[in-house]
Amino acid sequence: MSEQMHGCLICGARLVYFTQAEPMSCALCGQTQHSLSMCENGHYVCDACHQKGAASIVPALCQSMHGTNPLTIAESIMRHPSVHIHGPEHHYIAGAALLCAYHHITGDIDLTAALDELIARGCAVPGGTCGYWGACGAAISTGVYISVLTGATPYSIEPWRLCNAITAQCLQTLADVGGPRCCKRMTYLCIVEAAKFTAEHFGVTMPLQNDFHCIFHRQNAECIRNYCPFYPE
Question: Is the CB of residue 96 less than 8 Å from the CB of residue 77?
Fold first, then answer.
């Protein structure tokens, strides 16, 4: 059975989303969970199975890179065959790219430990939060990035403020561009906002080219094309 890289991982069919969760059995691991989506042919793949490959490969990819532009780092990660066009793996890709760029610029932070913690937290964010929670996982990923960077906890004062501030800033930017969801677009938008935030609050400037374009748009059936700031003209 070959894995599909967009739509349903089993057959490639379009996903169907519901407003109330229903019990479904994962087509890969067999576990029964309540879910808000399945494909048009009735297949359901749980979040753990969906992102299993990406969660294990992202740290290795980041360790092998030496760039300082978080957009191109994220693009390199998303080129890997374990990363799908959409999915919960994007709940840690933005933060991972930002941590990687920050480390290469400053030499600070234990990158291995930071990535492990960020990915563990990102994996806990369910798929579909952008539409069901009103909080995109890519935006949450930037909050985790700042939290890991500052060592924030629920008892923190300034670090607590900063990690909530960047998440709020990213969510506002995503809302201004509008839906439907595109995990690539939302990841890129959040990275841009977080890079600006990092320069403002930590004095670390990450290079971001103005002519950065998405290379994945042809694979996304819901691409908003010219309404996306990363759509190639």
Answer: yes
The pTM for the full model equals 0.86
3-class DSSP state of 17: strand
* pLDDT given for residue 48 in this prediction: 78
Distance CA 224, CA 185 (A): 10
Q: Provide the token pair at 28.
A: 């890969």
Condensed to tens digits (0 to 9), the pLDDT of residues 30-83 reads: 889 888 888 888 888 887 777 676 777 888 888 888 889 999 999 999 998 889
Residue 153 CA to residue 173 CA, distance in Å, equals: 25
What is the four-CA torsion angle of 126, 189, 228, 36, rounded to 10 degrees? 10
Q: How far apart are CA 8 and CA 4, in angstroms?
A: 7
* CA–centroid distance for 47 within its chain: 13
Q: Taking CA 47 as the corner, what is the angle to CA 113 and CA 24, rounded to the nearest 5 degrees?
A: 155
Query: What span, in angstroms and rounded, lies between the C-alpha atoms of 93 and 87?
Result: 11
Q: Convert the pLDDT of each residue in 103-146 to its tens digit.
A: 999 998 999 999 999 999 999 999 999 999 999 999 999 999 99
Q: How far apart are CA 25 and CA 45, in angstroms?
A: 8
Task: Name the CA dihedral angle for 107, 195, 114, 90, rounded to a multiple of 10 degrees.
Answer: -140
Q: How would you write 87-115 as a 3-class SS string?
A: CCCHHHHHHHHHHHHHHHHHCCCCHHHHH
Within 10 Å of residue 45's Cβ, how many Cβ atoms? 25
- Separation CA 210–CA 231 (nearest Å): 12
pLDDT of residue 1: 34
CB 8 within 8 A of CB 15: yes
